[in-house]
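Action item from last week, closing it out:
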Amino acid sequence: MKVLVTGAAGFIGSHAAERLQRDGFKVIGLDNFSDYYDVSLKQQNADALRTKGIPIIKMDLRDPSSYEQIDKDFQFILHFAAQPGISSENSFEDYFSNNVIATQQLLNFAEENIHLQHFFYISTSSVYGIEATFPETVAPKPASWYGVSKLAGEQLVLAKSRSKEMKATSLRLFSVYGPRERPEKLYTKLIACGIKDEVFPIFEGSEKHLRSFTYVGDIVEGISKAFQKHELLDGEIINLGADEEHKTQEGIEIVEELLGKKIQLEVKPRRQGDQSRTLANIQKAKKLLDYDPKTSLKEGLRLQVKWYKENH
């Protein structure tokens, strides 16, 4: 079985590509190596995949002509590639082109794959809005350009399922952390500041935010299970995440404990569209996938600190 993984040089995409290969799939990765963050970090991930026999092709999903360089013989497509995060430095056009236009172009390509069995779209808890504590049946209320654009991409994919043009599933991920996490994300940045004795910038009030912090290994386990049971998942939306919540302050204190030092914080103005609470409702994932995330926040952060020290 052959699977195309977009965004394969990114944080979660690289882990998922490795896991699917271990599961017996022939994996081909795509990434545009955008400069949203240090390209050398993406290259490091891509090199790690290549050493394991997973090719990574550089291409822009928004460009229809770029698809000419890849074959049309995939049984599965796993679509991670996106403009991530909530940042005032990104324009609406950035989110729209990367999360909506790119998804539509990929769907056009997918329709030409006569052997395609399933299209998996990676969505986000941000589609739920300021609080993300709901089952998949609740109407989304995104409060950021990121959430709005990811929901639009999700609906483009599910429309193909509704019209019986292809089988498709959306997986909504919750607050993923772990090795290879992007440098601007909470824990990688926090660990870096602690090790380098630098001040950590924290948005006002965010230390009280509640999060379903989910270790990346538990996320890719859920994705693996979804592939195994894909025949049951056409048209489904499934939450994947840890079903317990922690205050951001708890995470900060765990990192300080692991590093054996206090990290100085600098409070920044509140960030518009930031979620105040996420708690993954995973009853559906438990029922359909036998999904059971097991990694505690402390154990996951221990592994992330170890990774950071070994790779930076």
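Closing note: The radius of gyration is 19 Å.
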